[in-house]
Amino acid sequence: MSTVASVLREPSGAQLARYGALQFALSFVALPLYVFLPAYYGAEHGVPLGLLGLLLLGARLADALVDPALGRLADRMLARRRAWELIAAASLVSLVAFAVLMGLAGWLSSGLGAPLFAAVFVAALWLAQAGATAAGVAHQAWGAALAGGEAGRARVFAWREALGLGGVLAAAAATQLGGARVFTLGFALSLAATLALLRGVALPPVFAPRAHAIGGLRAVVEPLRHPAFRSLLATYVSSGVAASIPATLVLFFVRDRIGAAQWAGAYLLLYFAGAAVGVPLWLRAVARFGAAPTWLFGIGATVCSFAWAAALQPGQRGAYAALCAVCGLALGSDLIVPPALLAGLIRSRGHDGRLEGAYFGLWSFAAKFTLALAAGVALPLLGILGYRPGTPATGLLPPLVVAYALLPCGLKVLSGWMLWRGWMRPAARDPAFLLDSTRRIP
Protein backbone atom coordinates (compact mmCIF):
# COMPACT_ATOMS: atom_id res chain seq x y z
CA MET A 1 0.00 0.00 0.00
CA SER A 2 1.15 3.54 -0.68
CA THR A 3 2.97 5.17 2.19
CA VAL A 4 0.98 8.38 1.80
CA ALA A 5 -2.42 6.85 1.26
CA SER A 6 -2.35 5.16 4.64
CA VAL A 7 -1.89 8.39 6.61
CA LEU A 8 -3.52 11.14 4.61
CA ARG A 9 -6.81 12.86 5.30
CA GLU A 10 -8.41 14.98 2.64
CA PRO A 11 -7.36 18.60 3.30
CA SER A 12 -10.01 21.26 3.73
CA GLY A 13 -10.57 24.07 1.27
CA ALA A 14 -8.98 26.52 3.71
CA GLN A 15 -5.85 24.38 3.96
CA LEU A 16 -5.61 24.09 0.21
CA ALA A 17 -6.05 27.84 -0.17
CA ARG A 18 -3.19 28.50 2.24
CA TYR A 19 -1.05 25.93 0.49
CA GLY A 20 -1.82 27.09 -3.04
CA ALA A 21 -1.44 30.82 -2.32
CA LEU A 22 2.32 30.69 -3.00
CA GLN A 23 1.58 29.91 -6.63
CA PHE A 24 -0.05 33.34 -6.90
CA ALA A 25 3.33 35.00 -6.30
CA LEU A 26 5.31 32.55 -8.43
CA SER A 27 2.90 32.95 -11.33
CA PHE A 28 3.00 36.71 -10.97
CA VAL A 29 6.69 36.60 -11.84
CA ALA A 30 6.34 33.88 -14.50
CA LEU A 31 4.28 35.95 -16.94
CA PRO A 32 6.77 38.86 -17.06
CA LEU A 33 9.70 36.46 -17.52
CA TYR A 34 8.17 34.39 -20.30
CA VAL A 35 5.69 36.69 -22.06
CA PHE A 36 6.54 40.33 -21.26
CA LEU A 37 10.35 40.08 -21.43
CA PRO A 38 10.86 39.24 -25.16
CA ALA A 39 8.67 42.09 -26.40
CA TYR A 40 9.94 44.47 -23.70
CA TYR A 41 13.55 44.17 -24.78
CA GLY A 42 12.99 43.29 -28.44
CA ALA A 43 10.40 45.90 -29.40
CA GLU A 44 10.64 48.67 -26.80
CA HIS A 45 14.42 48.70 -26.35
CA GLY A 46 15.68 47.50 -29.72
CA VAL A 47 17.61 44.38 -28.70
CA PRO A 48 17.95 42.29 -31.93
CA LEU A 49 15.68 39.24 -31.99
CA GLY A 50 18.54 36.90 -32.85
CA LEU A 51 20.62 38.06 -29.86
CA LEU A 52 17.60 38.10 -27.57
CA GLY A 53 16.63 34.58 -28.58
CA LEU A 54 20.15 33.28 -27.93
CA LEU A 55 20.31 35.00 -24.54
CA LEU A 56 16.95 33.56 -23.51
CA LEU A 57 17.90 30.11 -24.80
CA GLY A 58 21.24 30.15 -22.97
CA ALA A 59 19.84 31.37 -19.66
CA ARG A 60 16.89 29.00 -19.70
CA LEU A 61 18.96 25.96 -20.64
CA ALA A 62 21.50 26.78 -17.92
CA ASP A 63 18.62 27.17 -15.48
CA ALA A 64 17.01 23.90 -16.56
CA LEU A 65 20.23 21.94 -16.01
CA VAL A 66 20.14 22.55 -12.25
CA ASP A 67 16.48 21.56 -11.83
CA PRO A 68 17.15 17.85 -11.02
CA ALA A 69 19.63 18.93 -8.32
CA LEU A 70 17.06 21.38 -6.96
CA GLY A 71 14.60 18.50 -6.83
CA ARG A 72 16.94 16.45 -4.67
CA LEU A 73 17.51 19.48 -2.44
CA ALA A 74 13.75 19.75 -2.04
CA ASP A 75 13.54 16.07 -1.03
CA ARG A 76 16.21 16.57 1.63
CA MET A 77 14.59 19.70 3.03
CA LEU A 78 11.17 18.05 3.05
CA ALA A 79 12.62 15.07 4.93
CA ARG A 80 14.09 17.50 7.48
CA ARG A 81 10.72 19.27 7.61
CA ARG A 82 12.34 22.54 6.52
CA ALA A 83 10.56 23.01 3.22
CA TRP A 84 9.24 26.45 4.15
CA GLU A 85 12.77 27.72 4.84
CA LEU A 86 13.95 26.49 1.43
CA ILE A 87 10.98 28.11 -0.32
CA ALA A 88 11.46 31.42 1.49
CA ALA A 89 15.22 31.63 0.77
CA ALA A 90 14.83 30.64 -2.88
CA SER A 91 11.98 33.11 -3.37
CA LEU A 92 14.08 35.95 -1.98
CA VAL A 93 16.89 35.17 -4.44
CA SER A 94 14.34 35.20 -7.26
CA LEU A 95 12.90 38.54 -6.12
CA VAL A 96 16.29 40.32 -6.05
CA ALA A 97 17.31 38.96 -9.46
CA PHE A 98 13.90 39.81 -10.91
CA ALA A 99 14.24 43.41 -9.73
CA VAL A 100 17.61 43.67 -11.50
CA LEU A 101 16.17 42.18 -14.67
CA MET A 102 13.24 44.58 -14.74
CA GLY A 103 15.51 47.57 -14.15
CA LEU A 104 18.24 46.57 -16.59
CA ALA A 105 16.51 48.12 -19.60
CA GLY A 106 17.01 51.57 -18.09
CA TRP A 107 20.76 51.01 -18.17
CA LEU A 108 20.75 50.62 -21.96
CA SER A 109 20.10 54.33 -22.47
CA SER A 110 23.15 55.12 -20.33
CA GLY A 111 25.47 53.44 -22.81
CA LEU A 112 25.76 49.97 -21.25
CA GLY A 113 27.90 47.88 -23.61
CA ALA A 114 26.49 44.80 -25.32
CA PRO A 115 28.83 42.29 -23.61
CA LEU A 116 28.10 43.66 -20.14
CA PHE A 117 24.38 43.84 -20.88
CA ALA A 118 24.38 40.22 -22.07
CA ALA A 119 26.27 39.03 -18.99
CA VAL A 120 24.02 40.83 -16.49
CA PHE A 121 20.86 39.86 -18.40
CA VAL A 122 21.74 36.15 -18.45
CA ALA A 123 22.87 36.10 -14.80
CA ALA A 124 19.78 37.92 -13.53
CA LEU A 125 17.42 35.79 -15.62
CA TRP A 126 19.13 32.60 -14.47
CA LEU A 127 18.91 33.54 -10.79
CA ALA A 128 15.30 34.74 -11.07
CA GLN A 129 14.28 31.48 -12.72
CA ALA A 130 16.40 29.19 -10.52
CA GLY A 131 15.09 30.76 -7.31
CA ALA A 132 11.49 30.46 -8.47
CA THR A 133 12.14 26.88 -9.59
CA ALA A 134 13.59 25.79 -6.26
CA ALA A 135 10.56 27.25 -4.50
CA GLY A 136 8.15 25.79 -7.05
CA VAL A 137 9.60 22.27 -7.04
CA ALA A 138 9.49 22.07 -3.24
CA HIS A 139 5.94 23.44 -3.33
CA GLN A 140 4.79 20.86 -5.90
CA ALA A 141 6.45 18.00 -4.00
CA TRP A 142 4.68 19.20 -0.86
CA GLY A 143 1.35 19.27 -2.70
CA ALA A 144 1.80 15.81 -4.24
CA ALA A 145 1.48 14.26 -0.77
CA LEU A 146 -1.47 16.29 0.49
CA ALA A 147 -4.30 14.08 -0.77
CA GLY A 148 -5.03 10.53 -1.82
CA GLY A 149 -6.85 9.30 -4.93
CA GLU A 150 -6.87 10.73 -8.44
CA ALA A 151 -9.69 13.18 -7.78
CA GLY A 152 -8.07 14.35 -4.53
CA ARG A 153 -4.74 14.96 -6.23
CA ALA A 154 -6.46 16.87 -9.01
CA ARG A 155 -8.21 18.97 -6.36
CA VAL A 156 -4.88 19.92 -4.75
CA PHE A 157 -3.39 21.03 -8.04
CA ALA A 158 -6.62 22.70 -9.09
CA TRP A 159 -6.39 24.96 -6.03
CA ARG A 160 -2.71 25.61 -6.70
CA GLU A 161 -3.21 26.43 -10.36
CA ALA A 162 -6.39 28.44 -9.80
CA LEU A 163 -4.56 30.68 -7.35
CA GLY A 164 -1.64 30.77 -9.77
CA LEU A 165 -3.99 32.01 -12.44
CA GLY A 166 -4.94 34.79 -10.04
CA GLY A 167 -1.28 35.79 -10.02
CA VAL A 168 -1.14 35.69 -13.80
CA LEU A 169 -4.24 37.87 -13.98
CA ALA A 170 -2.62 40.36 -11.61
CA ALA A 171 0.51 40.37 -13.78
CA ALA A 172 -1.58 40.85 -16.91
CA ALA A 173 -3.26 43.83 -15.25
CA ALA A 174 0.19 45.18 -14.36
CA THR A 175 1.03 45.09 -18.07
CA GLN A 176 -1.66 47.73 -18.54
CA LEU A 177 -0.82 49.70 -15.39
CA GLY A 178 2.89 50.29 -15.87
CA GLY A 179 4.91 47.23 -16.67
CA ALA A 180 8.36 46.60 -15.17
CA ARG A 181 8.17 48.61 -11.93
CA VAL A 182 4.67 47.41 -11.14
CA PHE A 183 5.78 43.81 -11.75
CA THR A 184 8.59 44.15 -9.20
CA LEU A 185 6.38 45.74 -6.54
CA GLY A 186 3.60 43.21 -7.11
CA PHE A 187 5.97 40.26 -6.84
CA ALA A 188 7.46 41.57 -3.60
CA LEU A 189 4.12 42.22 -1.89
CA SER A 190 2.46 39.00 -3.03
CA LEU A 191 5.49 36.93 -2.04
CA ALA A 192 5.51 38.32 1.50
CA ALA A 193 1.81 37.62 1.94
CA THR A 194 1.79 34.11 0.47
CA LEU A 195 4.86 32.96 2.39
CA ALA A 196 3.10 34.00 5.59
CA LEU A 197 0.07 31.92 4.60
CA LEU A 198 2.17 28.89 3.69
CA ARG A 199 3.92 29.07 7.06
CA GLY A 200 0.75 27.82 8.72
CA VAL A 201 0.35 24.71 6.54
CA ALA A 202 1.59 21.50 8.19
CA LEU A 203 3.75 19.13 6.18
CA PRO A 204 2.26 15.63 5.77
CA PRO A 205 3.82 13.18 8.28
CA VAL A 206 5.19 11.00 5.45
CA PHE A 207 8.09 13.42 4.95
CA ALA A 208 10.76 12.07 7.28
CA PRO A 209 14.31 10.72 6.90
CA ARG A 210 14.41 7.18 5.48
CA ALA A 211 17.20 4.78 6.34
CA HIS A 212 16.96 3.03 2.98
CA ALA A 213 16.04 5.95 0.74
CA ILE A 214 17.75 6.21 -2.63
CA GLY A 215 20.43 8.90 -2.68
CA GLY A 216 23.00 10.53 -4.91
CA LEU A 217 22.89 10.40 -8.69
CA ARG A 218 20.71 7.31 -8.61
CA ALA A 219 17.90 9.32 -7.03
CA VAL A 220 18.12 11.93 -9.80
CA VAL A 221 17.78 9.36 -12.60
CA GLU A 222 15.49 6.90 -10.81
CA PRO A 223 12.27 8.39 -12.30
CA LEU A 224 13.65 7.93 -15.83
CA ARG A 225 13.92 4.17 -15.31
CA HIS A 226 10.15 3.83 -15.53
CA PRO A 227 8.59 3.73 -19.04
CA ALA A 228 5.34 5.31 -17.84
CA PHE A 229 7.21 8.36 -16.51
CA ARG A 230 9.22 8.67 -19.72
CA SER A 231 6.01 8.54 -21.74
CA LEU A 232 4.26 11.11 -19.55
CA LEU A 233 7.30 13.39 -19.65
CA ALA A 234 7.55 13.21 -23.46
CA THR A 235 3.87 14.10 -23.80
CA TYR A 236 4.31 16.98 -21.37
CA VAL A 237 7.27 18.32 -23.36
CA SER A 238 5.43 18.19 -26.68
CA SER A 239 2.37 19.87 -25.19
CA GLY A 240 4.57 22.41 -23.41
CA VAL A 241 6.42 23.46 -26.57
CA ALA A 242 3.06 23.93 -28.27
CA ALA A 243 1.99 26.28 -25.47
CA SER A 244 5.34 28.07 -25.10
CA ILE A 245 5.62 29.27 -28.69
CA PRO A 246 2.41 31.36 -28.60
CA ALA A 247 3.34 32.60 -25.12
CA THR A 248 6.63 33.89 -26.51
CA LEU A 249 5.04 35.47 -29.59
CA VAL A 250 1.68 36.70 -28.28
CA LEU A 251 2.65 40.36 -27.80
CA PHE A 252 4.18 40.45 -31.29
CA PHE A 253 1.01 38.88 -32.74
CA VAL A 254 -1.31 41.29 -30.95
CA ARG A 255 0.63 44.32 -32.12
CA ASP A 256 1.66 43.35 -35.65
CA ARG A 257 -1.17 41.05 -36.79
CA ILE A 258 -4.24 42.21 -34.86
CA GLY A 259 -3.07 45.83 -34.58
CA ALA A 260 -4.13 46.23 -30.96
CA ALA A 261 -0.96 46.71 -28.92
CA GLN A 262 -2.83 48.87 -26.42
CA TRP A 263 -5.15 45.94 -25.65
CA ALA A 264 -2.43 43.34 -25.04
CA GLY A 265 -2.95 43.29 -21.28
CA ALA A 266 -6.72 43.02 -21.70
CA TYR A 267 -6.30 40.03 -24.02
CA LEU A 268 -4.06 38.30 -21.48
CA LEU A 269 -6.63 39.01 -18.79
CA LEU A 270 -9.36 37.43 -20.89
CA TYR A 271 -7.25 34.36 -21.59
CA PHE A 272 -6.31 33.66 -18.00
CA ALA A 273 -9.75 34.59 -16.69
CA GLY A 274 -11.15 31.97 -19.05
CA ALA A 275 -8.66 29.47 -17.62
CA ALA A 276 -9.70 30.32 -14.06
CA VAL A 277 -13.37 29.82 -14.95
CA GLY A 278 -12.54 26.51 -16.61
CA VAL A 279 -10.60 24.95 -13.72
CA PRO A 280 -13.70 23.77 -11.76
CA LEU A 281 -15.16 22.31 -14.96
CA TRP A 282 -12.00 20.33 -15.69
CA LEU A 283 -11.88 19.19 -12.07
CA ARG A 284 -15.39 17.75 -12.42
CA ALA A 285 -14.37 16.08 -15.66
CA VAL A 286 -11.44 14.37 -13.91
CA ALA A 287 -13.77 13.08 -11.19
CA ARG A 288 -16.19 11.70 -13.77
CA PHE A 289 -14.05 10.53 -16.67
CA GLY A 290 -10.53 10.17 -15.25
CA ALA A 291 -7.43 12.31 -15.58
CA ALA A 292 -5.91 11.05 -18.83
CA PRO A 293 -9.16 11.13 -20.89
CA THR A 294 -9.81 14.64 -19.57
CA TRP A 295 -6.38 15.80 -20.70
CA LEU A 296 -6.85 14.24 -24.13
CA PHE A 297 -10.15 16.03 -24.56
CA GLY A 298 -8.53 19.28 -23.40
CA ILE A 299 -5.80 18.90 -26.01
CA GLY A 300 -8.42 18.41 -28.72
CA ALA A 301 -10.36 21.45 -27.52
CA THR A 302 -7.17 23.55 -27.62
CA VAL A 303 -6.41 22.56 -31.21
CA CYS A 304 -9.96 23.18 -32.40
CA SER A 305 -10.10 26.63 -30.82
CA PHE A 306 -6.56 27.89 -31.43
CA ALA A 307 -6.49 26.94 -35.11
CA TRP A 308 -8.93 29.80 -35.55
CA ALA A 309 -6.06 32.24 -34.86
CA ALA A 310 -4.57 31.49 -38.28
CA ALA A 311 -7.70 32.83 -39.98
CA LEU A 312 -7.78 36.14 -38.10
CA GLN A 313 -7.05 39.24 -40.15
CA PRO A 314 -5.65 42.63 -39.10
CA GLY A 315 -8.19 44.67 -37.16
CA GLN A 316 -10.30 41.75 -35.92
CA ARG A 317 -9.96 42.75 -32.29
CA GLY A 318 -13.28 41.42 -31.07
CA ALA A 319 -12.72 38.05 -32.73
CA TYR A 320 -9.32 37.77 -31.10
CA ALA A 321 -10.84 38.60 -27.71
CA ALA A 322 -13.34 35.76 -28.16
CA LEU A 323 -10.50 33.44 -29.18
CA CYS A 324 -8.58 34.33 -26.01
CA ALA A 325 -11.56 33.49 -23.82
CA VAL A 326 -12.25 30.15 -25.52
CA CYS A 327 -8.59 29.08 -25.53
CA GLY A 328 -8.34 30.06 -21.89
CA LEU A 329 -11.18 27.67 -21.02
CA ALA A 330 -9.23 24.85 -22.67
CA LEU A 331 -6.05 25.71 -20.75
CA GLY A 332 -7.32 24.30 -17.44
CA SER A 333 -6.73 20.68 -18.44
CA ASP A 334 -3.07 21.42 -19.15
CA LEU A 335 -2.69 23.02 -15.73
CA ILE A 336 -4.26 20.50 -13.36
CA VAL A 337 -4.13 17.09 -15.09
CA PRO A 338 -0.41 16.51 -15.85
CA PRO A 339 0.85 17.15 -12.27
CA ALA A 340 -2.03 15.07 -10.89
CA LEU A 341 -1.02 12.19 -13.19
CA LEU A 342 2.57 12.56 -12.07
CA ALA A 343 1.62 12.56 -8.38
CA GLY A 344 -0.37 9.38 -8.94
CA LEU A 345 2.55 7.73 -10.71
CA ILE A 346 4.91 8.61 -7.85
CA ARG A 347 2.50 6.94 -5.46
CA SER A 348 2.01 3.86 -7.62
CA ARG A 349 5.77 3.30 -7.66
CA GLY A 350 6.07 3.52 -3.87
CA HIS A 351 8.20 6.66 -4.07
CA ASP A 352 5.81 8.87 -2.11
CA GLY A 353 7.38 10.69 0.81
CA ARG A 354 10.84 10.06 -0.63
CA LEU A 355 11.39 11.15 -4.22
CA GLU A 356 8.69 13.72 -5.01
CA GLY A 357 11.39 16.37 -5.46
CA ALA A 358 13.37 14.17 -7.87
CA TYR A 359 10.30 13.66 -10.05
CA PHE A 360 9.22 17.28 -10.01
CA GLY A 361 12.81 18.43 -10.56
CA LEU A 362 12.88 16.52 -13.85
CA TRP A 363 9.37 17.78 -14.55
CA SER A 364 10.56 21.35 -14.08
CA PHE A 365 13.59 20.65 -16.28
CA ALA A 366 11.23 19.56 -19.05
CA ALA A 367 9.10 22.70 -18.64
CA LYS A 368 12.21 24.91 -18.85
CA PHE A 369 13.37 23.02 -21.92
CA THR A 370 10.09 23.78 -23.70
CA LEU A 371 10.37 27.48 -22.88
CA ALA A 372 14.02 27.62 -23.93
CA LEU A 373 13.24 25.83 -27.18
CA ALA A 374 10.35 28.17 -27.94
CA ALA A 375 12.43 31.31 -27.41
CA GLY A 376 15.63 29.93 -28.91
CA VAL A 377 14.00 28.67 -32.10
CA ALA A 378 10.90 30.81 -32.74
CA LEU A 379 12.52 34.24 -32.34
CA PRO A 380 15.64 33.64 -34.50
CA LEU A 381 13.51 31.78 -37.09
CA LEU A 382 11.20 34.76 -37.45
CA GLY A 383 14.24 37.00 -37.87
CA ILE A 384 15.62 34.72 -40.59
CA LEU A 385 12.28 34.69 -42.40
CA GLY A 386 12.31 38.47 -42.54
CA TYR A 387 9.90 39.42 -39.77
CA ARG A 388 10.79 42.64 -38.00
CA PRO A 389 9.05 43.73 -34.77
CA GLY A 390 6.78 46.68 -35.40
CA THR A 391 6.14 45.72 -39.04
CA PRO A 392 2.48 44.78 -39.74
CA ALA A 393 2.10 41.06 -40.55
CA THR A 394 -0.30 41.23 -43.48
CA GLY A 395 -1.32 38.69 -46.09
CA LEU A 396 -2.87 35.25 -45.84
CA LEU A 397 -0.23 33.37 -43.81
CA PRO A 398 2.80 35.52 -43.01
CA PRO A 399 5.62 33.94 -40.98
CA LEU A 400 4.33 35.39 -37.71
CA VAL A 401 0.93 33.73 -38.17
CA VAL A 402 2.44 30.35 -39.11
CA ALA A 403 4.76 30.39 -36.09
CA TYR A 404 2.13 31.69 -33.65
CA ALA A 405 -0.86 29.56 -34.68
CA LEU A 406 -0.23 26.65 -37.05
CA LEU A 407 3.02 25.27 -35.62
CA PRO A 408 1.61 25.03 -32.06
CA CYS A 409 -1.53 23.28 -33.33
CA GLY A 410 0.57 20.66 -35.06
CA LEU A 411 2.57 20.08 -31.89
CA LYS A 412 -0.62 19.78 -29.84
CA VAL A 413 -1.92 17.10 -32.19
CA LEU A 414 1.37 15.26 -31.72
CA SER A 415 1.07 15.49 -27.94
CA GLY A 416 -2.48 14.09 -28.06
CA TRP A 417 -1.26 11.13 -30.09
CA MET A 418 1.60 10.58 -27.64
CA LEU A 419 -0.78 10.63 -24.67
CA TRP A 420 -3.00 8.03 -26.29
CA ARG A 421 -0.22 5.87 -27.72
CA GLY A 422 2.26 6.07 -24.86
CA TRP A 423 0.05 6.28 -21.75
CA MET A 424 -3.65 5.54 -22.19
CA ARG A 425 -3.42 2.51 -24.47
CA PRO A 426 -0.65 0.73 -22.49
CA ALA A 427 -2.48 1.42 -19.21
CA ALA A 428 -5.74 0.04 -20.66
CA ARG A 429 -4.03 -3.11 -21.92
CA ASP A 430 -2.00 -3.75 -18.78
CA PRO A 431 -2.79 -1.96 -15.48
CA ALA A 432 0.67 -2.95 -14.21
CA PHE A 433 2.11 -0.43 -16.70
CA LEU A 434 1.72 2.25 -14.02
CA LEU A 435 3.21 0.09 -11.27
CA ASP A 436 6.73 -0.97 -10.43
CA SER A 437 6.41 -3.48 -7.64
CA THR A 438 9.84 -4.99 -8.35
CA ARG A 439 11.77 -1.80 -7.58
CA ARG A 440 9.97 -0.19 -4.65
CA ILE A 441 12.21 1.52 -2.11
CA PRO A 442 12.52 -0.66 1.02
Secondary-structure-derived class: mainly alpha
Which assembly state applies to the chains in this document?
single chain
CATH architecture: Up-down Bundle
So, the CATH homologous superfamily?
Answer: MFS general substrate transporter like domains
- What's the CATH topology label? Growth Hormone, Chain: A
Can you walk me through this structure?
This protein has one domain: MFS general substrate transporter like domains (Growth Hormone, Chain: A), CATH 1.20.1250.20. 76% of the residues lie in helices and 0% in strands. The protein has 15 helices and no strands. The protein has helices at residues 13-44, 49-65, 67-79, 83-103, 105-108, 114-144, 150-177, 180-199, 216-221, 227-258, 264-289, 291-306, 317-348, 356-384, 399-429. The radius of gyration is 21 Å and the shape is globular.
Features:
about 450 residues; mainly alpha; Growth Hormone, Chain: A; about 75% helix; disordered C terminus
Write the layout of secondary structure elements.
Layout: H1 13-44, H2 49-65, H3 67-79, H4 83-103, H5 105-108, H6 114-144, H7 150-177, H8 180-199, H9 216-221, H10 227-258, H11 264-289, H12 291-306, H13 317-348, H14 356-384, H15 399-429
Please sum up the structure shown:
The protein is mainly α and 442 residues long.
